[in-house]
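Hypothesis: this fold can be encoded by more than one sequence.
Test: take the structure tokens below, design a sequence, compare later.
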């Protein structure tokens, strides 16, 4: 997003300063010099100017050189880039980029030399993926500290946006990067004697523009509160409060429209945070909280989110891998809003094992044991009945030799096997074969102990038509 600088009426073209050529070829090459600073390479380019990596020819110190675009060089615009150095030095805050030299190139373009930072803009980090709410709060609190110091020095930034917040590594807290607030070139010094802007001038970026800026009215510290509210809304909810195809439509929405309630996008948003975002985006500057109140409320919200984390950890202890609970957005299904902290991946609480495989396995074991006992009882009953019938058949008259008289009944009360030996010529009755066959078959199926069913069968256990269960089929 580029900063928009125009007047309330038509947009006049900047008038080049005396001696400045109108050529657009204003890039510096490696080896070019700006005072004692030697250009190494270009680091970036924006709407106001380009930034180069430079090294001091005398002491070897590395720094960043910001040079205004040639087409923007005029009396007032040249003063604006030099004002940035004055503003930064007037505030002197660790969350504001340090500027330690100013100058002018041979072609008349002003430049400033600032500390060289290794990191990335907040806009790049937001594009990479969801930033957790506690990290967002840590970043916003550092921006608040820088703005509180600037407002105490009667300075309004007027161009707060994600591109102007630079993140660098923080050795003290690896989870929250250090913040450097950049681009104070269009900042306004609030003074009755000094006026650094023209009345009616429209300065800022449309997506983050306060209503009074869109009207071209006077700005105040509450203007920065509104722009910071837009940034906070975007970071917490992953979308801008107002989006349209043209800058004019966006500015009109800032003037007249109400942003979508944050709870529609994050159902479990802490109430204090939702009230803070809506208050910061109030159309009337007097209805917005001060920057001190914003910082204090963010501290309370962070404590609330931490209490939620502790409560969830106590109620649902995590075994195995650690899960991250992320806020869920209605616009995007990337997060889980169960507890309002989170996100870069969907919530992944370890799921409890399914119980239906265990129940089926237990049922299979019980069924197998019951069938085994029933089969043994049937075997005993069937085995006893055929032997009794065989003994009765041996005593029949047609199965005893007629050469000897019929013996009295008491004399034949011998065991069945003895009688069978006495009747050698007589073949066994044919009824024994069909009786022994099913008994033998039953013993074959039930003689072996039932197989142990595993706790988690590999698939659903089938049941045979005869009632037997084999979990390995």
């Amino acid at each position: 997003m580029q900063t928009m600088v125009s007047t309330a009426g038509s947009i006049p073209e900047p008038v080049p300063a005396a001696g400045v050529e109108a050529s657009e070829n204003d890039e510096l090459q490696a080896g070019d010099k700006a005072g004692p600073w030697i250009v190494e390479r270009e680091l970036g380019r924006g709407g106001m100017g380009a930034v180069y990596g430079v090294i001091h020819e005398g002491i070897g110190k590395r720094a960043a050189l910001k040079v205004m675009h040639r087409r923007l060089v005029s009396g007032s615009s040249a003063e604006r880039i030099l004002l940035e150095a004055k503003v930064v030095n007037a505030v002197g805050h660790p969350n504001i980029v340090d500027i330690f030299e100013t100058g002018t190139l041979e072609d008349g373009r002003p430049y400033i030399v600032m500390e060289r930072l290794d990191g990335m803009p907040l806009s790049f980090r937001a594009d990479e993926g969801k930033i957790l709410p506690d990290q967002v709060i840590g970043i916003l609190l550092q921006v608040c500290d820088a703005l509180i110091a600037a407002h105490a020095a009667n300075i309004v930034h007027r161009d707060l946006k994600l591109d102007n917040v630079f993140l660098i590594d923080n050795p003290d807290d690896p989870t929250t990067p250090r913040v450097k607030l950049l681009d104070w070139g269009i900042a306004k010094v609030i003074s009755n004697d000094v006026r650094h802007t023209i009345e009616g001038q429209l300065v800022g970026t449309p997506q983050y523009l306060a209503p009074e800026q869109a009207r071209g009215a006077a700005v105040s510290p509450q203007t920065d509160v509104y722009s910071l509210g837009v940034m906070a809304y975007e970071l917490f909810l992953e979308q801008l409060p107002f989006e349209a195809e043209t800058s004019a439509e966006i500015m009109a929405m800032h003037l007249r429209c109400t942003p979508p309630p944050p709870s529609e996008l994050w159902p479990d948003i802490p109430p204090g945070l939702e009230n803070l975002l809506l208050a910061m985006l109030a159309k009337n500057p007097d209805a917005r909280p001060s920057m001190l109140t914003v910082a204090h409320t963010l501290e309370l919200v962070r404590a609330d989110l931490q209490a939620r984390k502790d409560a969830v950890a106590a109620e649902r202890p995590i075994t195995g891998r650690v899960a991250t609970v992320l806020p869920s957005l209605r616009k995007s299904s990337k997060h889980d809003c169960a507890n309002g902290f989170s996100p870069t991946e969907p919530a992944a609480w370890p799921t409890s094992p399914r119980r239906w495989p265990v129940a089926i396995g237990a049922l299979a074991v019980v069924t197998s044991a019951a069938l085994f006992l029933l089969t043994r009882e049937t075997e005993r009953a069937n085995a006893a009945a055929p032997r009794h019938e065989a003994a009765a058949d041996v005593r029949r008259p047609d199965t005893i030799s007629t050469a000897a008289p019929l013996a009295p009944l008491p004399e034949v009360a011998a065991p069945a096997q003895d009688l069978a030996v006495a009747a050698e010529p007589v073949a066994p009755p044919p009824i024994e074969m069909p009786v022994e066959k099913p008994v033998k078959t039953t013993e074959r199926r039930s003689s072996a102990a039932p197989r142990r069913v595993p706790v988690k069968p590999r698939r659903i256990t089938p049941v045979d038509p005869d009632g037997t269960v084999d979990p390995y089929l």
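DSSP finds twelve helices and 13 strands in the chain. The domain at 9-18+30-114 is CATH 3.30.200.20 (Phosphorylase Kinase; domain 1).
Hypothesis status: open.
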